[in-house]
Amino acid sequence: MSKKLDPVTQAIRIQSPQTSQHEHSTPLYLTSSFTFDEAETMRAAFADESQDNIYSRFSNPNVDEFIAKMCALERAETGFATSTGMSAIFSSMFALLKQGDHLICCSSVFGSTFTIVTKYLPKYGITATLVPVGDNAAWEAAVQPNTKMVYLETPTNPQLEVIDLEWVGRFSKKHNLILNVDNCFATPLLQRPIDFGADLVVHSATKWIDGQGRVLGGIIVGRKDLVKDIYLFCRNTGPAMSPFNAWILSKSLETLDVRMQRHSENALQIAEKLQSNPHVAWVKYPLLPNHPQYEIARKQMKSGGGVFCLEIKGGLEAGRKFLDALELLSVTANLGDTRSIASHPASTTHSRLTDEQRLSVGITPGLIRISTGLEKLEDILSDIEQALEKSAN
Ligand SMILES: *Cc1c(COP(=O)(O)O)cnc(C)c1O
To answer: What is the pairing mode between strands 218-222 and 280-284?
Structure first.
């Protein structure tokens, strides 16, 4: 076809070459390695003179198909897929940073990312400065002569703060820093960091990309020269995505656009309705006008995504009762599923921290995070409403 296809169409139509069976759907290539008819073709593959697959730790047709679709959606030059979101994030840092380098990181990042940045990077002589979202002066003040990379998430988890990608893109360019963005919450359908100057985009494909709570996965896409170094690091250290997970995730990308539209619509409408609920102190969602970075969210996001949070009146005890009263929503340590999920960090994932420690990472006693699924809006809403009612008794 001469016309360049829209990325959404590409995410549906990009496919590994058909086999002699003329299958319509890509088969699963469960093979650890690939054979060569001649010593010469094998030499050429190892010398990087051909694109032939060698070994599934390096590449595999299912994994390549998933990467090609993600590159189309993120408008990225190239990519590498990994076993989990964390291995993508870890590899993007460890492949590109070395002893003596410095990283600027937004202060609210995913828990394990926070641990990598504050515990493991320093162990290898890589220092980091954590800067609060929205404090542009703090970002400027954090720049050192040895700063190499800026790392951030937007919207952040679980507070859903939004970082101005246009501003950070300019900031990173001005100081010649690699801008590395975790785009997990928005997905490329709602927000494309590369359009704002990001050099790398990382994902936990476990969340919205799979979207059905089945497999773990991660991916790094972006600038060719950087991804090449990450690829070589991964090829030797071994965090490759499995062909089976890639097969699942590639299929999932065919429906990501419609899913994200519905997830976002459900989340916005439910968040709006809960604002006037008597048991709710406040509701936070990037596309509610009372969100502190509403204008930025509108500028850089096509819709607000599937996650919103609320503060339940009555704090810790009410939050615990809320979880126990839910009949439809799942209580589980995940998000980005067709099935709606509720979490109450203060009484579960963060219960071992003191109130003060929790507040320092933005977790208030009654904070409830909802990952809005694809069930009928009325069913999700009425389950939340009845659980809120019970939480007050
Ligand atoms: C879940 C998550 C990760 C980690 O991904 P895994 O696939 O669980 O390793 C990283 N960043 C964000 C924003 C996440 O929500």
So the answer is: unpaired
